Amino acid sequence: MLPHHNRMTMEASTSNHGESDLLEKLIAICGADAISTSDADLRFFSQDLFFEGALPIAVASPSTPAAVVEIVHLCRTSGLSIFLRGGGMSYTKAFQPTHDNAIMLDFSNLSAIREISVQNQSVTVESGCTWAALDASLAKHGLRARFWGPMSGGSATVGGSMSQGTVTFGSGTTGASANAVKSFEIISGAGELIRTGSDGSKGTSPFNRNFGPDLTGIFANDAGALGIKTAVTLETEPRPPHVSGLSFAYDDFDNMAELFSELSARRLSSEMIAMDGDVARQNAGPANLVEDAKAMWRIGKAAGNPVAAVGRMAKIAMGGRRFLDKAKYTAHFVVEGRDKAELKSRINAIRGFARSGTEIVNTVPLMTRADPFPVLPVTHPDGRRMLPIHGVFPASALHDFHLDYSALKARFSEKMDAVDVTVAEFFAGIAGVGLLYEPVFYWPDALYEYHRRRTPEYLDGQMSVYPENLPARELVGEFVEAFNILVHRHGGGHFQIGRLYPYAENREGGAATLLRDLKQALDPDNIINPGALGL
């Protein structure tokens, strides 16, 4: 539901007869509380971490798939585009309107958990449900989704992740988000309802993704360009009763990358993340006795029994933040087991593969699992703007890419120093794929409405206010363009393609024709998120 203080009251701003007629029809479909035309809402919903889009006519929050179908038909006859926004935790221009003759769909009212089937090991959930809400509901049954969300899952939605492609929780064993999907419920640009798994046959439940051609895969990671996801059926699994973590410090990128490759191949760790020393220190934030005590209490509760809780808390208290002081890279692994013997076996195996690193206190993996969906800042804690970008690489490409990326960073260093731009790196292992390589930029700059609404309360009073810094913003854009060229040169790819990363323009031969034919067949008037994927 749209924020109460921004809900629409029909104002003079909609005096244009055509717009007034459209808004009346949208209200008839969704209800007045589910339509907004306030300037603040239009700005918020058309912004992400870095990009601003054109302001749409309205933001609509339908509550049923039938309402989405009506909206599609309305927009087709009115010549309007529809831009789709999930939780908004994006940075790739994935949902921004490219023109103002458009509406935006917000999925916060389409967020029900329709069915949890313990026997069939599946859950059907509407697209606007957050990963945190889904996980809390499944936990009551001793279950979780096989891929169970990104770290931004307190705000990020299931539908948004499935359109964008995301990693984190479960990626060390399952891979990326789409690997856990059994079926999508899609509304096409022609207003047709499509079910993609075995439930595409009358009277059949969504128990099998691969009943004939994999239609589910067509709509995964499509940036919403091929259709509107209204529901997703995910595979579930029992929640593992035993969880621990390991952390290592590395001074050499190649040795760290080799460890990720070994663990990915053997699926020994549920979550595999790493960061350079700057990112680790920034994520840790300033020392705060009260907040550190709260974090340790969450870790203690996650340990499962009082003895383990005391042991973990004491170890972390003694280790403190000292491991961050000098490490060039820190690598962190969450380890799970059906029983203590399996957990111990996995831990011992990981230590064996990590011999070239130095084991450090395992604060990061334990805190990650104790509080998996924290309220994430959308700026640096001191108020500077930030932008993460990424490439995804097979193990064979990492050495050469890292060398060339380091050289690219060195070439930009003088320009970045001049406008106070810094960059650090984050990494994530993805089973069956390779390594996600994510530079994160920070620079002083004025904030958007998006940043102001998304800033956590715990940063109140800690953030500086900066004036607009267009030279820094433009330099970041220049670096991103050079980075994308470098990723392509080394045979890498991307999740969260949106409009930032090249896709359709790089399809070869029949693949390019098939992609455009699919778009034409599913969205004949090109009204669904036009421009996404380069379509």
Give a short synopsis of this structure.
The chain is of the alpha+beta class. Helices cover 36% and strands 19% of the residues.
Task: Write down the CATH class of the largest domain.
Answer: Alpha Beta
How many runs of DSSP E, i.e. beta strands? 18
**Strand count, sense and closure of the main sheet?**
8 strands, antiparallel
CATH topology of the largest domain: Alpha-Beta Plaits
Please work out how many helical segments DSSP would assign.
16
Q: SS-based structural class? A: alpha+beta
CATH architecture name of the largest domain:
2-Layer Sandwich
Mean pLDDT value? 89
Low-confidence blocks of residues? 3-15, 285-321
Calculate Rg over CA atoms.
23 Å
Strand residue content: 15-25%
User: How would you sum up the global shape?
Assistant: globular
Q: Termini distance?
A: 30 Å
Total discrete domains: 4
Helix residue percentage: 25-40%
Task: List strands and helices in order, with pairings.
Layout: H1 17-30, E1 35-36, H2 39-45, E2 58-60, H3 65-78, E3 81-85, E4 102-106, E5 113-117, E6 122-126, H4 131-139, E7 143-145, H5 158-164, E8 181-187, E9 193-195, H6 215-219, E10 228-238, E11 242-250, H7 253-266, E12 271-276, H8 277-284, H9 289-302, H10 306-319, E13 329-337, H11 340-353, E14 358-360, H12 363-370, E15 385-388, E16 391-393, H13 395-418, E17 422-430, E18 434-443, H14 449-454, H15 470-489, H16 509-522
Parallel strand pairs: 2-4, 3-4
Antiparallel strand pairs: 1-2, 5-6, 6-10, 7-10, 8-9, 8-10, 11-13, 11-14, 12-13, 12-17, 15-18, 16-18, 17-18
Helix pairs in contact: 1-3, 7-13, 9-10, 9-12, 13-15
